[in-house]
Amino acid sequence: MTATDTARPGRSWLLRLVLTFSFAQGAVSMARPAVSYRALALGADVRAVGVITAVYALLPLLVAVPLGRRTDHGRCAPLLVAGVALISGGCALSGLAGSLPAMAAWSGVMGLGHLCFVIGAQSIVARRSAPEDRDRNFGHFTIGASLGQLIGPVAAGLVISERDGRMAPTSATALLVSGAVAAFSYASLWRLERRGRPAPAGDRGRPAAAPVPVRGILRSRGVAAGIFMSLAVLSATDVLTAYLPVIGEDRAIAPTAIGLLLSLRAAATLACRLVMTPMIRWLGRTALMAGSCALAGLLCGGLVLPVPVWALAAMLAALGFCLGVGQPLSMTTVVQAAPERARSTALALRLTGNRLGQVAAPAGAGVLAGLAGTAAPFVLLGVGLLVSAGLAARTGAERGGGSVAVAGGARGPTVAGGDRKPARRDRKRLRREP
Questions:
Q1: Beta carbons within 8 Å of 200's beta carbon, 6+ residues apart
Q2: Tell me: the pLDDT tens digits for 258-275?
Q3: C-beta of residue 270 within 8 angstroms of C-beta of residue 143
Q4: Which of 164, 275, 356, 405 is 20 to 30 A from 202, alpha carbon to alpha carbon?
């Protein structure tokens, strides 16, 4: 089933998908810090914690593209069912594990489940959204991620306690609770995907088209830019979460205040996604992507300045708002740019880039911080976001903004989700086509 299902009798499916994603992402966001605390309680050093954390991102790299291929030619919902089962099982079994190798293995299972869920969920949004609605629907979809990222770490902090040597049992409890939270996703995991219509009689005997090569997908104009933008935004978020406490330690900012600053960043990201549609209508998607990445790059570099806490809070709120744009619009960019029969594979490649960034960015930031001080990682992230802004502006100019399907199979300028001016080649093609 490769055709996009754009019939829109209602959007209850999107609301249920957001709720499902909130539970799944909340479970993962609660489990990941709990895994680190559990590993420390089992005697892990900093290096072992890093290895266990890396397995979460590394294992899914091996299966992302095959899962995308499978989804391009089949249904998406089974991936959601399997993903929730793997997340729930990985969380709960991490809480029961009694050794570091077992912790690493179950952390990898959790990461694999998250990858399965996200590929399936993003593919459902791409298929069930009309082209002019994709920006809005992907923005609403990522609200689920923002809610999970906002609530999960707070819930883990409330459950885990270091007093009286209780970190081992309390971290295990947090992991068991996160497994139960993931299982709640099944409550809204019904009828999210429509059954594919049977193929026309004349098409039933035709052989299936060969899959689009990965190189061909990456060469599609806009795919690589969307992947890089997603990688840059996610890397900035991860490094900010990991190294803001280091900045706080250097400036004598209390850990409680650092936690509130990180929560402020997450809340600003959530607020951005609530107003995504009006911003696209006002600015156009290319200007919004390029402008948000450029401003985020400048703010990342500005975090190294010796400013008071209130100014740091203002910068983090603005940075969180800007970072909220990149993920949903990079999804739309990749979906619109990729060949129609390879959209799930393109989304899987985007997630592969995200996972590589989650592995490489913290490791690279650690090396840079050791060589040039804590300011270096933030400066490098700022440069990456500025490069992403340039790529977004260039891609938007070359493509003339987004486009939507119109009668007869031609493509015209985006009405609600794209830039105001169509590309010159699109106008010429419209004149030639009957």
A1: none
A2: 778 888 888 898 898 888
A3: yes
A4: 405
